Amino acid sequence: MEKKPLYRKINTRTWGVRLNGYSGEYRHQRHTKAELSNQSSRGSMHGKSRHGLDYTPLFRFLLSRVGGEWDEIYSEAVTRLDRPEPIFWMVALHEDERKEFVCLGESSYFSGLYVDERKRLQVVNPELKAEHMTPFCQCCTHTFNGLPFGQRKD
């Protein structure tokens, strides 16, 4: 039985969808005299950024496997992904890379994870909960491990 992928496609054609790191600023820069004098500064129009994929199912999968053997978790996750890099947005293999929480999206926060010396997946700060989090703005709905926090009191 084939398991579902740990990512999903999101609609990037709808008006108003903002993608992190992407803006129409290039159109204002091309064909300028400075650009023509220095052709080497011109970058590729085919960047490495991949738009339109949401890895929330992966992050929930990793949280549900805390305490499990890392090699098994990793091998299952890799077979269900398009590429392995998103795993390491949340999981630290080295002690200096550990973070209590990671921001994955505009206002989606998840617990930071790490692999301990026994090769088990662990949470960096297991006491950290959604009620301990403070939103950076009041206009967005912020979530921590899928639970909303910092809601406006209207």
Question: How many H/I helical runs?
Answer: 4
Number of strands: 9
Please give the largest β-sheet.
4 strands, mixed
Question: What share of the residues does DSSP label as strand, in percent?
Answer: 15-25%
Topology pattern, helix = H, strand = E: EHHEHHEEEEEEE
Question: Main traits of this protein?
Answer:
four-stranded mixed sheet; single chain; 4 helices; three-stranded mixed sheet
Give a short overview:
The protein has 154 residues and is an alpha/beta fold. It has four helices and nine strands; from the N terminus they run βααβααβββββββ. The chain has a domain of 97 residues.
What does this protein structure show overall?
There is one protein chain. The chain is α/β, with parallel strands linked by helices. The protein has a domain at 53-149. It is 18% helix and 16% strand. It contains four helices and nine strands. The chain has helices at residues 26-29, 33-37, 56-64, 70-79; strands at residues 8-9, 53-54, 91-92, 101-103, 108-111, 113-115, 121-123, 142-144, 147-149. Strands 4-5-8-9 form a four-stranded mixed β-sheet, with no helix packed on it. A hairpin with a 4-residue loop joins strand 4 and strand 5. It is globular. Residues 35-41 have low confidence and may be disordered.
